[in-house]
Each structure stands twice: as C-alpha cells, then as structure tokens.
Amino acid sequence: MGSISFKGRDIISINDLTREETDYILSMGDQIENLSAKGSANLCGKILVTLFFEPSTRTKLSFDTAMYKLGGQVVGFAEPKASSVEKGETLSDTIKVVENYGDVIVLRHPLEGAARLAAEVASVPVINAGSGSEEHPTQALLDLYTMKKEEGKIDGLNLALVGDLRYGRTVHSLAYALSMYDVNLKLISPDQLRMRREVLDHISKRISVQEGNSLNDLLPDLDVVYITRIQKERFPDLADYEKIKGSYKITPETLKGVKDNLIIMHPLPRVDEVDPAIDSTPYAIYFKQVKYGLLIRMALLSMVLGTI
Amino acid sequence: MGSISFKGRDIISINDLTREETDYILSMGDQIENLSAKGSANLCGKILVTLFFEPSTRTKLSFDTAMYKLGGQVVGFAEPKASSVEKGETLSDTIKVVENYGDVIVLRHPLEGAARLAAEVASVPVINAGSGSEEHPTQALLDLYTMKKEEGKIDGLNLALVGDLRYGRTVHSLAYALSMYDVNLKLISPDQLRMRREVLDHISKRISVQEGNSLNDLLPDLDVVYITRIQKERFPDLADYEKIKGSYKITPETLKGVKDNLIIMHPLPRVDEVDPAIDSTPYAIYFKQVKYGLLIRMALLSMVLGTI
Amino acid sequence: MGSISFKGRDIISINDLTREETDYILSMGDQIENLSAKGSANLCGKILVTLFFEPSTRTKLSFDTAMYKLGGQVVGFAEPKASSVEKGETLSDTIKVVENYGDVIVLRHPLEGAARLAAEVASVPVINAGSGSEEHPTQALLDLYTMKKEEGKIDGLNLALVGDLRYGRTVHSLAYALSMYDVNLKLISPDQLRMRREVLDHISKRISVQEGNSLNDLLPDLDVVYITRIQKERFPDLADYEKIKGSYKITPETLKGVKDNLIIMHPLPRVDEVDPAIDSTPYAIYFKQVKYGLLIRMALLSMVLGTI
C-alpha cells in the first residue's frame, strides 16, 4: 500500500475506490489519530471551502472541526439562499470562483452528479459530502472505519441494514462499500422502503445479500445492526406508518440473546428507532461513529492535500 | 481564593456560584486582560462549540471573539433551522454528538432548564448563554465586573434596575447576582412589567429591595442605573405604552443633580431608552460593558478549560 | 510614494483616493502576493468584523479568505435578520458595539451613506464592501488591478462598460476610478439602463466618454470590455428584455476581428452575457479577477492595519 497516493484526488463516489485504496484510507484514520494526539497541525495555512447547497449541520460541523483540528481555516456557506446561485449562477461558475479561495472544496448538493461535475471543473480536490440520493462516500468510509475499530475486522461480519433503504443515501453508499468486503448482508425494511434495485443488482453480484421485513428473528446472529430513521412522510396511510414504526425499534427487550460483540450503528439524527435505554449499553456505538467520522475526514483532507 | 478551580465546571446559573467564586471570576477578568495584552493565546488548539437555538448576534459575537482572542477556534450554528433539531433530534442527542467536536459548549436555548440538561449530558463544560426567561449568568457576571471596574466596588452601591423587569432574563440574573453583595436595590418599572415574584422573593431575603414606578425622584441618590428596553408588544393598549415609554427615558434633563460617580448601564440593544446625547457623557457606560463582557467571557472559557 | 500611509484610514469611496494613492494600493497588490508566497501571516492575532446588512456571498468570501490568508480571524454576520438590527438598533450603536470585537470592520449596507456614517462612528478602520447604489470601492480597485496586471498599464486603454450601467454599483465605482486615468471610455447600454447622470457628469470632465447602444461595431478597437448582467426585472415589457438581451451577449462570433490583447471582464455572477465557449480563450479574464480581488483585499486589510 506504500505506493498509494491521494494527493490532488477527488473523493466523489465510494465506487471510485478499490478495496486496497479503501483499506488505505481506513489505515490513515489511525495515523491521523496518532498525529493529532501529538498536536500536529499539518494543514496550517490551508483553506477549506464548504459549499452546502443543502443544509446539513452534522456533516458541516464534522468537516469544519476536522479542518480546524489540523490547523486549517474554513470559508463557505451553509445555505444556498446566501449564495450567488440565487442570482442564477451555474455550479460550474461557482466552482471556478471559489477555487481561487481554497485548497480543497467540500460540496453537498441536492442533485445527482453535482459533485462529479464540480470535480471536473475544479483545479483543487473536491470531496463529496452528499449529492443526490445515492452518494455520501465519507459517511460510508466512517461507517467502515467504525466496524473495523469496534469489531477488529470487516471481512466475515454478519450485518443488517435496517429501516428506510430506499431514500437514504447513507445506506446506499454503505451497501456499495460493504460489497468490496467478504460480508453477509441482510436488508431489512418495510416493502415500501426496500433497497433500490440498482444498488441491489450491484452488490448482489459481489456479496451474499438477503432481503426481509423482520429484524427480531435475525438479531441473535448479527455482528452489526445499522439502523436508519423511517420518515412518516413516506407513508400515504399514517396507520401503516404507526404499525411499521414499532417493528423496527430497538429496545432492551429486542436485544435479549444477541451476541456479545453486537454493535448498533445509526447515521443520526435518531428519532425513536433506538430506545435511549440502549445508549448506556456496550452495543450502542452511534455516538462513537461521530468521533470516527471526524478522524476519517481529517485523514481525507490531509490525504488529498498531500500532507500525510 | 487560591484553591478555587473552575476546570471542567459548567456555568449554568448565577445561583450556582458562591460570592467567593463570583469574586474570583471577576478577578480573573483583570488577569485575562493582562495576559491578552502580552499576546497570550492560551486556548490554541481548543475548539468552542456554539449552539444557538435562539438567535443572538451580540452574545454569539462576544463568545466567538473571546475564543479567537485566546487563539482557539469556533464551530456551531446560529439558528436552529440549520440544525438536526428540525429532524426531530433531542437536545440530549445533539449534545452527545457535538461533545465530540469541541472542548467546551456555549448554549442558548428558549426553554428553561435546557442549559442544565445539556450540562448533565455533556462530558465537556457547558456555559449557558441564556436559557428560558431567567438565566443569563455571563451577562450578570459582566454587569458585576462593569460595576466593580467603574465604581471600584460592588458592596455599598445604590442601584436601580429600570424598565421591563418581567420578561428580561438579563435583569433576573443580575438581581440574583447582586443579592450576593451588600447593595441597596430599587426596582423601577410600570406595574405591568414588575419584577417576577420568584426573583423578588429570593433577593428580598438577602438585600434591601424597594419597588417603584418612578425613576426621576431616585436619580440623585443612585450610583448605578441599569436600564432596559420596554417592548411595545407587552402592552395591549398602545396608548399605555406611549405614555409609559417616555417616563423611563434618560435624557440630559433627567440627569441634572445626579452624583458624579453615577453610571448608566444597558444590556443593549437600546432603542430609545437612553438619549444618544448621553453617549458622550462620563455617565454612559453601556458601550464599555461590551468590552468588559469580552474579558469576562475570555476568563470563563480559560477557567473551565483549566488554562488560567 | 514612500510617504503614503493608510494605517487607520477608512476605505469608503473611490472618490476619496488620489491617483497617487490608488497607484500605491495597486502596487501593494504585488507586494502582498510576494509576502504571501513566503507564507507571511502579518495579521496574526487581528480580528476582522464583517457586517453584511445585505447578503453577498462573493464579497464576503473574498474578505474572509483575505483575512485568513494573512493569519487573522473573522467574526460577524451575513444576514441582517441574524442581527440586533431586527430589534431596532441603530447602525451607530451596532458600530459602537462591534468596534470592541475587531481591529477592522468591513460593511455592506443597502443604504447610501451607511459606510460613511460607520466610519465616522468607529474607532477602528472601516472598509466599504458596497453601500447604496454607487459605492463599491474595493471592486473598483480590483478591477483596476486586473487591467494593470493583464494589460501592463491603465493609461491609454480603450475600454467599454457594457450592460446595466444604471443600477450596478460596480460600474459606478469603476467609472469614477477610471476617470483618474488617461483612458478612452465607451458606455454601452440599452436606453433604459444608461449611466447615471451624476456619474456621467463627474467623469466627463476628466476623460473622454462616449455613450452608445451597440457593442459589436466598437469591439475591434477595444482593449477592455467590462460587461455586466442585465436583469429582467428592469424591463416592464418582457419582449424588450428578450430583444435587448441578445445584443449584449459576447459569443465566439462577436469576438472575430478583436485585438489580441482584448480582455473581457465581468464582476460576476454571470448569467448568459458571456457564452461559456469564451471561458477557454485568452480573452476571458473574469475568473482571474477573483484572484486579483483577493490580493487587493489582502493588501487593503494589511494597509489599514499598518502591517505593510
């Protein structure tokens, strides 16, 4: 892996990465943790431009913090209405302007393909912080990193992705990412919210995948439960929502008989998919994901800027 | 006082502080002024998380500046709508996320008790920048610090709190704070906006308090006038408002015969409670309060992070 | 020019500057580029306060980046609604508050004269980032700097300002700025959007000015085309707009026969005044203006703070 370099590269889709590159990024998470413990500020004098055409406090806070912890600075906007976009500027022009201000661009955009376009235009590296409904590569990388840190490995894991598998870009990127590893994957959702066909087709060729509606029977065999929020708005009939909601909720009851090493992950924010009573158990890893996310983003910023 | 340490402590309510601790904080205001004159950047590498669930330019600017002057960085949000709260996240979850990003949290929240809850959840110190209608401890501390700097002491002062004593959290926290000292306090307001009963009960046991409607007769005896904005919206009958408004306005006329050492304070923003003609007189201290506020917040951040 | 000092000065209107001072500022653009290439952070420990009472992503990003590249910090707000102004505070009071927080203030305001008022009140330097419809001095300076860098000189140039000359403060400030030099200026616009009378009167006394409606005939003689966006809202009859719009659009066709040294400038954002096919030609300078703008703002901040 010594010959892998990410200097100047864009991070647009998890599918652009080989397994070897992905493992390399995960290993850099550890390295950046060591460096920052020593107080290294390897991005001193560098500027990150954050362009959030769609609000996302959590992801923006994570990238901002990552940059500051490395000694860098951040400019940008958190809402499209504060931008020249309102005056009719194209994304391409916006990028050609802001590439003068920063050394790296982090972009979130509602449209599929926006991050790819930005990367083609920009003379500096672009990191996709979510575009359209399918791509959120840094979230997938931090999810992999969490599994590796908490389970010691990714190959061989029994995992379930649970909840809304249709609309959540987090689970799409994660499913693609997991398909690079030797895992056994369950996709648990109500029928209305099944995993998208194109994702399923892609990953089914690579790993063992089973779809289902019920989580509880599977729980005793699982190493990882990755649960997501089911949004009321997805259900024309509210009664359907109320019935379904309960069956995907993790409580102390549902965790009886699970493996000791089970970890429960969640991209957050949570509403009521996971009973707060779980928070204090060793299974609850969702807040630790935030910390791992920070490390992975610190690693990615350092890597594309060529400082590690 | 040498044994007092605030490292790791939360600053939630002025009522959590003893007089000895309060005096210690005020003395640290002077110390931080000396340190920063020497260019000390004792919070270098530290990150402040500002969570403003209720907008407040003035308080946010003050904390941001305090952190920057100490060499630290700031992440956070200035409006709830840019946050995950819109997606239904609990305050407790938000805190468990952002404690991964920063070394100290400054919180403003519309609900009573929010800052206390945040402090219980967070593994890092929480400073209350205003929650509900009663608590704004850093404002009270900067108000005390202003009195100490401008009058040389707090004990023995004749003070009047004037204007809207019912809805302003600033005057509630300040009244609690003053009740630790040996002061003579007048509470001057229209009947509709009298000081809240629970505050009055608390402070009346400790210090001499008189309520009244008229400021002008009292002025010649006062050392400190602390005046606040009266909001039109509080009056069902606009004629009442117009009549009352005038009687709480400080003009060059009303200041005839006052003591030389009188200081006029105001939490700002002012609308028309204080005639701008007063600004150039030695009585006008309201803009200097801003400077003292910056020093007190620099001191508090340094203290809870254990660097002074 | 060695005796010129801008330390402590306000930058409010291009008309406050002599030609000698203007040339000095432009020369500082080069100097700051050299300094920053060496990694100089001459504003370390300084704080810029940005008060944007009118949103402007582009200008705010440019000033923020300028300050960060010099090692300084930035506090402020990007939208009036996040400010105390909503509570009825006067601009004068806002300035007296924020001058406690920063070493220099950058102000954008919708009202004519607001920047001048702020400068009179503030004890720290104020830089006007656009106020009312006439003044945007830092844009004019960066435009001059662009011409000097790209053409090697300003004196002797044949220039055309094209498009909306009535409502755009950019072209007003630039016209005033150009009138200090020995240039030949064409003002090309639809009749509804002709240059304001007061600007025309001022500059006509100093330089050769011709007004006209058609750009294409003039193009072969021009060194500089400065084109601006024509806004649909300015036309009561949409058919008028559609007809006019086309005649001020620069395409590869319209550029046949132009001088080799022609440069096309635009304050951005562009909508469709310049065909993107032009972007890759050597005539297209509009994205380089962004870079020059950053240098001029770095120079101005350093100059008023007395560090260069």
Report on this structure:
3 copies of one chain form a homotrimer. The mean pLDDT of chain A is 93. Chain A is α/β, with parallel strands linked by helices and 308 residues long. Chain A is globular. In chain A, helix 7 (197-204) links the parallel strand 6 and strand 7. Chain A has helices at 19-37, 57-69, 91-98, 114-121, 137-151, 169-178, 197-204, 238-247, 286-304; strands at 47-52, 73-77, 104-109, 126-131, 158-162, 184-188, 208-212, 224-227, 263-265. In chain A, helix 2 (57-69) packs across helix 9 (286-304). A 5-stranded parallel beta sheet of chain A has the order 7-6-5-8-9, covered by helices on one side. Chain A folds into 2 domains: 14-135 and 292-304, Aspartate/ornithine carbamoyltransferase (Rossmann fold, 3-Layer(aba) Sandwich), CATH 3.40.50; 137-290, 3-Layer(aba) Sandwich (Rossmann fold). Chains in contact: A-B, A-C, B-C. At the A-B interface, helix 2 and helix 9 of A face strand 2 and helix 3 of B.
Give a short synopsis of this structure:
Three copies of one chain form a homotrimer. With 308 residues, the first copy, chain A, is α/β, with parallel strands linked by helices.
Fill in the keyword field for this structure.
homotrimer; 308 residues; alpha/beta; Rossmann fold; five-stranded parallel beta sheet; 9 strands; globular
How is the topology of this model organized?
3 copies of one chain form a homotrimer.
Chain A: H1 19-37, E1 47-52, H2 57-69, E2 73-77, H3 91-98, E3 104-109, H4 114-121, E4 126-131, H5 137-151, E5 158-162, H6 169-178, E6 184-188, H7 197-204, E7 208-212, E8 224-227, H8 238-247, E9 263-265, H9 286-304
Parallel strand pairs in A: 1-2, 1-3, 3-4, 5-6, 5-8, 6-7, 8-9
Helix pairs in contact in A: 1-5, 1-9, 2-9, 3-4, 5-6, 5-9, 6-7
